[in-house]
Write a structure and sequence with these properties.
By secondary structure, this protein is α+β, with helices and mostly antiparallel strands. Helices cover about 30% and strands about 25% of the residues. The protein has one domain. The strands form two sheets. Strands 3-5-6-4 form a four-stranded mixed sheet.
């Protein structure tokens, strides 16, 4: 199954390692360092020009999506699978 991340971008759901809120990234120095490191490697892709609400991590790319974590979770669960293990614990608190 594919997950639509915004604009005209969809990714294969089995490639998803984690989905985190942008707020949780900003609150953690380690997460911020990870995102900066991935940017320096050229592995961060902004889905569109709007402010990102979520970060979707895959083995090869980190996507900055304007779609909220809860919406991505609903889209993922539409494929009859459970997402909580892939989403940060505080993801829903930022919505």
């Amino acid at each position: 199954m594919f997950i639509h991340l915004g604009a005209q971008l969809s990714i294969f759901d089995e490639d998803i390692i984690a989905i985190m809120s942008m707020e949780s990234i900003d609150r953690s120095k380690l997460n911020t360092e990870f995102l900066d490191f991935q940017r320096n490697l050229g592995k961060v892709t902004s889905v569109d020009m709007s402010k990102p609400k979520s970060v979707v991590i895959t083995p090869h790319t980190v996507y900055l999506s304007p779609i909220s974590v809860s919406t991505l979770r609903r889209r993922y669960n539409a494929g009859h699978r459970d997402l909580p293990s892939l989403v940060s614990k505080d993801a829903d608190k930022s919505i």
